[in-house]
Specification:
The chain is an alpha/beta fold and 555 residues long. The protein has four domains: 203 residues, Metal-dependent hydrolases (TIM Barrel, Alpha-Beta Barrel); 54 residues, no CATH class; 155 residues, Rossmann fold, CATH 3.40.50; 102 residues, Hypothetical Protein, Haloacid Dehalogenase-like Hydrolase, Chain: A, domain 2 (2-Layer Sandwich), CATH 3.30.1240. It has 20 helices and 21 strands. Helix 13 packs antiparallel against helix 16. The two termini are 28 Å apart.
Length: 555
Amino acid sequence: MRAIDLHVHSTFSDGTLTPTQLVELAEKCNLEAFALTDHDTTDGIEEAVNAASSFNLEVIPGIEFSTEYRGKDIHILGYYINPYNKEFQNAITEFRNSRETRNKKMCAKLNDMGIKIDYDEFIKSYPDSVITRAHYAKYMLAHGMVKNMEEAFEKYIGDDCPGFVPREKITPSKAVSLILKCHGIPVLAHPILYKYSDADLEKLVAELKRAGLKGIETIYSTYSNSDEKLIRKLASKYRLLITGGSDFHGNNKPNLSLGYGRGDLYIPAKLLPPLKNAYLKGFVPNKNIRQAMFFDMDGTLLNDNKEISTITRALLYKACENGHIFVINTGRALSSVLKVVDRLAIRDICKYVCAFNGGAIYDVEKDEIVDRLTLDTDIAEGVNNIAKKSGCHIQSYTDYELISEKDTEELRYYSDYVEIDSTIVDDLIAYSPNPYKLLLMNFKDHDKLLEAQKLILEKYGGRVFCLFSCDKFLEVIPIKGGKGYALKSVLSLTGIKHSNSYAFADEENDLTLLEAANKSVCLINGNPKLKAIADYITFRDNNNDGLADFLELFS
């Protein structure tokens, strides 16, 4: 069985390898997964996740909080946290600001001791890093102020040294609560290192358990057999998940290897499923109640080959057999969606199709549009004029047609992309005075699309949504519409309660969908704006059954 490592640091805190280098090393070490747990920051996670997409390797988004408990420095790990969550990031920012204040005071103390460090120059030496005492030691060594990093800690910046400044810290319980708020899994890091008596350690664990602690770091680079036995006993007594990590820092801890600690560390991959299950717990509180599942198509339900994988298809069928309803909610034209539905042979399980970003609600069984929402004619005329003045291609739609005044490169690309033919007309607005939506493109100059977006919002901002469904497509839809409108419409048609609605998506035009659903999921390949409001983020992307872990919960 392949190993994992749930405690790893990068250059974004006090490690010496970048997130990309960590991914490459993890692949060489044949790890199945590792958690990036930088101190008080999540800034390296996106880079690590993107780098791992080229390998058969999972990067678990994590963090390590430094907290204070009865005069001791206690670390709390967070796994499967949402690094884009605004509330979470605001809390981290406040925390990092307190660290900056402490670092400036420490720099001043060192200068008073004859260790001349210019703070601004020092900070520039470690861009994009959360500055820790390790950075001070490294800087002092590089500038010949100490013979080694150990000397820096022993003489100047260790806990009892004259250059040390304690930092205002959050409590462990507050860190646990903060991690839980974004559905993360809080874990007590390396408890043996705190050198508590057995009784005091148990008091800490019991207190944190009451606060919501979910796990404890049971396997660790420096533990003896008796240490691990003690922590396993606590984990069992307080029903905590077992985790393990090397606490890899690269050259800052040269005696520790990624995944293998001092060479004999082994953290089995079987520890990962319980962590994921804890993350997903409560997503579907009662699978026996009829639920409505809303899926964006491109980048979410479909992989990049415009197919539904065998696993995802099987889980969708199982969920529908259990009485839940499957709804496609997309920006595509209705005729395009229905072609895909028929090509993929999923008409028998697809209850509704919401097309044109909520403009048309189509009942698949009845074979009819049961709700529609269109743009006013004056808006359609105005947007058409703005598009032409900005030098952008513009196209429109009827119930089952894609229409344009010109046969352009953009039109041909779009027609092929969504698998529908187009009709060339003399006058776009005369042919379709109240379209479901308008779509603008310019493949040669993206800035012209941005210019058009600005002009449209200045003139019609209170009456339309004007947003990108991907970097190529700028869409204009009624302000009352959007995918969120479609979700509410379907719930009204089916009588399903809002508390039983679930949305899965990946792009900016899905924002209203995620906002409208009771529980929302963004694919890991999704837009950061969407991740910021999503309740959950998938473990894998749309090309690797990213929906599967969540669909299983409806079975």
